[in-house]
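Weekly modeling sync, notes
Attendees: S.R. (lead), two postdocs, one rotation student

Agenda item 3: backlog of single-chain predictions. S.R. asked that every request posted to the team notebook include the full sequence so nobody has to chase files. The rotation student volunteered to paste the first one in as an example of the format we agreed on. Action items at the bottom.

Example entry:
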Amino acid sequence: MFRKIVNNESLVVLLYTLISMIGALAIMKILAITLTKEDFGVYALILSIVSFIALFPFKCLDQGASRYVSINRSENSFSEFYSNYLFLLLVAIIFYISIFSIIDSLNIELSVFSEYIWTIFFFLTSEVVKTSFRTIVGAERKRIEILISNSLEFGLKVLILIIFIQDITLNIVLYLFIIINFISTIKLYLENKNELKLSVVNKVTFLFHNKRLWLFSYPFLIMAIFTWARDMSNRWIIDIYLDKESVAIYSILTSITIIIPMGIQTILGSYIVPIIYQKENTKQGFARRVTNILLLTLPILFLIIGLFIYIFAHEIITLFSSEEYIYHSWAFTSLFLAYSIYTLAMFSVYELLANNESKKLITPSIISGVLSVVSGLILINMYGLNGAIYSYLIGYISYAILIFIVVWKFRRKNV
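Predicted structure, as returned to the notebook:
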């Protein structure tokens, strides 16, 4: 019976992750062939703006929420925790409303982004609300609800983009994504409203639950800017030294590169992390046993996939974008292997997170983020897009090496 439940659960995780991957690929393909390179470059930069703001504090707090859902359930304090978590998110959203209002009222010139200022805010809000609800529901291992929400989101996005494919503009794309994000979130909430009950937020419970959240999440808050620097700074450096068409080429190439390793990380992480957090509470060492299995088996899989990519790099890039983006297909395999090594490092940190040692991730994030920015400024100026590729490799491989060292030291102290 247990095996049947596990198999069913893992199948659902596989399904909703595949839907997310295929949906994201379909969206990228449609936008690559319908938007101009310059508009796609602007779209890529807007995504980087949203991802940067979402880190402070939304995605950082999501890490804490994911860790403490099972604990608060066991302590019969989930309603209090959930209410205070939502209240904190609301405060953060109101803060950003103030910031965006100031920027808008002062007519601060933000280049091409000035015309998208409120569109960016609502897109950010829709992404934050969607992710936060999925974090809570996912932490309770409600896989079916996540599957339905993902299917609804990507199904509607792809369908409507196809319907309006002749009239697609960047504004239409962003407004469409905002509306569909909220629709999928409302659907998810309605399916779980009986269990996602609110309670009165008072000073005592607010301080207690948010102290827990912040103590676990503050390292992620510190790391956020450097993580973003590693992941997104090259887009802006390319925009400074080159142009938005080059931003589009780089964004397409790196987006296709991460599809498989990120998909594997999402599939396994979505399934394993809630279980690790639950089991580690009562069975010390469970996280280490799981990560050992992953670190022994996944490198072989990544090498096999890397060989396939080396042979068919040109065809893969054409399949998921268009002929306009194939010039740098030579770098595809190197980028894939670098991100695969980074993915292995991310699996290894589950043991640290399960033991509330998230602060140990701060130094690797800072160093790799600084290295990425510095190498990007130097190499992109000297070698153009090739320099961006070299900087990408430096950022992700340096992070992975530092993480493996941190995990190794942690294990030596906790044999």
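Discussion: group reviewed the output briefly. The chain is about 85% helix and 0% strand.
Action items: rotation student to repeat for the remaining queue; S.R. to check formatting next week.
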